[in-house]
Write a structure and sequence with these properties.
Layout (H helix, E strand, L loop, with lengths): L3 H23 L3 E3 H5 L6 E3 L2 E3 L2 E3 L5 H43 L4 H4 L10 H9 L3 H29 L4 H26 L6 H21 L1 H15 L1 H13 L3
Amino acid sequence: MFTKGQRLFIILGGIFITNALIAEFIGVKIFSIEQTLGLAPFNWSLMGIEGSLSFTAGVMLWPFVFILSDIVNEYFGKKGVRLLSYLTAALLAYAFLMVYGAISLSPAGWWVASKADSGVPDMQMAFAGIFGQGNWIIIGSLTAFLIGQIIDVSVFHFLRKYTGSSRIWVRATGSTLVSQLIDSFVVLYIAFVLPGAWSFNQFLAIGIVNYVYKVTAAVVLTPLLYVIHGIIDRYLGKELSEEMIREAAASRV
C-alpha cells in the first residue's frame, strides 16, 4: 500500500509532530536541572541579571525535534521539512484553540472540588492554570518554531554543498546553532518583552542561557543522529537510501 519512503515519512512525521505537541504542553512546568540531577546550585549572572539553571520541561523534547528535523531534511529535503513544519504549526494552533475551548466550558460542580482531599481545592483553576498558556507565549512559540525551522532547513542545505553526503554532524549541528540562536530569542522577545513583562537585559540574559543549553544538548545528542541514520539506512536498503539522499540534496523547493 505504501512504499518504504512513504512509510518512513509518516513515521518520522508522526514522531516529530507528537514531540512538538507534547513539548508545548509540558512547557508550562519550570524545573531545576541542579535539583533534578542532585547537583549543587549553579547561579549565573549576566548583564545584571541573576538566575539558576531552570528551564521549561519542554526542553527535554525539543532537542529530539531538532534531530528529527535534520533526519527528514537528509532524506526528504526542504519540501519534506517545510510540509512537516507548517502542518505542525497548524496542529499546535488547533490544539491550543481546543484547550481554550475546554477551559471555557462550565465545569460540573462536583468535579471542581473532586480532588480537595488530595490538596487540589479547585480543579477548574488547576486545569486552566496548567493548560491555559498566555496568548503572547503561544504566539511567540509558534512564530519562533516556524522561523527556526525555515532557517534550519536553509542552513542545512547550504552546508550540504560543502560536506556532500558525508559529515552529517556538521550539517545538523551547524543548522541547529544558527536556527536556535534565532528561535531562542524570538520566542522570549514576543512572549515576554512585547507585553512588557521583562526588561531587555533580562531578555538577553535568559536568551543566552537558553541558547547555551540548546547548543549543549545538540552536541551531546549527535551520536543519536547517527544511530537513527543507521537504522533508516538498514530499513531502506543501501540503494534506496542513497537515491533518496541524492534527491533530497538536489531539491530546490
